[in-house]
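Quick bug: DNA sliding clamp PCNA output formatted oddly.
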Amino acid sequence: MFEARLQQGGLLKKILEAVRELVSDGLWDCDGSAITLQGMDSSHVALVEMYLRAEAFDHYRCDRNVSLGMNHAHLSKILKCANNDDIITLKAADQDPDTCSLILESKGGEKTSDFVVNLVRIDADQLGIPETEYSAHIKMSAGEFQRICRDLSQFGDAVQISCSKQEVKFSSTGETGAANITLSHSATVDKEEESVTVDLKEPVDLTFALRFLNLFSKASPISEMVTLSLSQDAPLVVEYKIGDSGHIRYFLAPKIQEDE
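Here's what came back:
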């Protein structure tokens, strides 16, 4: 038996919105300590990893490890029926391994909706993500990162991210011209969500597809801050914290620059 009750059901809606356009079918692995999700996009360029601890739920029971193969479009249809302050319970019974139940309860308890979603069979191995020492970490407002990706998409389909001592520059070039947005290290501002911190070991200059970064930025409602981790010989990591209870991390391989 697996059962998890989330007091703030809006969080589950935000998590799904953050992953569903990147991964159409996902394997939600549940054990005694957490729910995890890992999946790659269809072109195998980007990877998403979600980790949500059992402590995020006000009731969590998992008698044995269970993997729920979810079609994210179908799951989204159900969650659109929920208000952000609804209580959402996920249930999977041992005697029916092909379905998962979702129960939506209004905050006052005056309305309960019960849905059953058919699970899909997904053959996917968990990828081992190696521990990496990154050359640069940029922590900034998630909303600002989303705006930068959206604005630069008006100029080109790729963004060049350059990190130097006290700043990070985002650049894009296309038929209409070029755009450059520079953020300076500003950790001393009063509000954390307005600060930019650049932790640099060595300069980094890499180019990434904006299409994927725009998809990643759909996780902005989950966290006020986002952290970008870069190294010349490793994929970019874009991380959003889910409070103190977990995270969503995206991994994106850089675009290979063709020699002149």
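Actually, after a second look the formatting is fine. The chain has a mean pLDDT of 92. Closing.
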